[in-house]
Amino acid sequence: MKRFLSLLCTCICMSTLIGGDSTGTIIVEVSPCKKFTGSLYAALFASADGFPDKADKVYRTEILTVTAETNYIEFKNIPYGTYAISVYHDVNGNGKMDMGAFGPLEPYGFSNNAKAIFSAPPFSKAAFVLNSSEVTISIKLRQ
Length: 143
Prior knowledge:
By secondary structure, the chain is mostly beta strands.
């Protein structure tokens, strides 16, 4: 058993040294928040499947109380790879994005500031690569 544990530790250490478990932090700068009420909901997707609004397909979600015109959301310990982010400002604090006949009634945005024209942009337009210890993504909210 000791030999097995020693071998396992050696494998884990070697994997870390050669970048087998590389992770980073994605910092999302969201602005402008015109009202300092409610929360920002940010969804990180690791594939096109479900992007931008299927909760059961989200890789990770972060929620942040809005306190300023520019707010920062962090996704920590994310494996290197390709991702896309969708975010919305739940101004009234009801826990959902309010929709009207012609689309969202609350501010929203996507990584790469991908534009939503008649429908949400595809994952490919919002996709970015995390391949370093930290990357900052700026998202401009639209309404």
